Amino acid sequence: MQSWRLEIEYEGTRYSGWQKQPHARTVQGELLKAAETFLDAKVELGGSGRTDAGVHALGQVAHLKCGTSRQPPSNRQLQIGINNLLPHDINVLGVSPALANFHARHDALGRYYLYQIATRRTAFGKPFVWWVRDRLHVAAMSEACDFVIGRHDFRSFCESTETQTSTVVQVETAHVFTHGSLILFRIGASHFLWKMVRRLVGALAEVGRGRLSVGQFSRLLKTPSNEPAAWTAPPSGLFLERVVYAGERPPTQRSPAILF
Questions:
Q1: What mean pLDDT comes out for the span 41-60?
Q2: Quick check: is 134 catalytic?
Q3: In Å, how far are 10, 116, 118, 129, 189 from 258, measured between CA atoms?
Q4: Choice among 40, 52, 89, 153 that is catalytic
Q5: 3-class DSSP state for residue 76?
Q6: pLDDT for 197
Q7: Which residue spans of the chain are classified as CATH 3.30.70.660?
Q8: CATH code of the region 2-97
Q9: The domain made up of 110-244 is a member of CATH 3.30.70.660
Q10: Whole-structure pTM over 0.85, yes or no?
Q11: Is the pLDDT reported for residue 142 higher than 80?
């Protein structure tokens, strides 16, 4: 059994998320098709986590396992071979050998997301930002963001709470910063709930608009509410920035996902 670790980037605009679905085009589905065609064998391919429809990735990680008896390709040959069969908006950044028991999701220690809010209209960046026309108070957003760090019940920021075994998440880092005309939100945790990041961004935008106080935001982490559902930010501005494994470091640079 051959096993590899894949580093993948993709623009999620045209896809119904990461997870393979029988009647929809997905990132995992495209990767599986390309890998099986190149290796001429059935493979197992699993990601570090699911991204929703329209969400992008700068550093998704997947394991690829194949039981073929043929001479395995080199890492470079596998990368080029798969990329030649992928659509233009999915790209394998790198391939490295992995232990037979490596599992992209189970072995991950942390996941980091980056969200981009544009403060101006853009002709080039629309698929990668949420343009908020209102003026946002970044200092207030940053103050509210500090309350996200730590162990909290994120029930207020989760879709379909009844399907979750727990809505408690330990957030290791969260901060708001600016870069040119962009307001950026980075958050890191061991795992995330469905739509959690986008609802946090939507609530922070309400703080920036002055419609929600910092105190009201903090209370959403203590008292469950359905109100954040109405503020859910669009998927276009969200990127899975990095997945961290043992011995690896989280992202620290204060720069956008894509310059435009």
A1: 97
A2: no
A3: 12, 9, 12, 10, 22
A4: 52
A5: helix
A6: 98
A7: 110-244
A8: 3.30.70.580
A9: yes
A10: yes
A11: yes
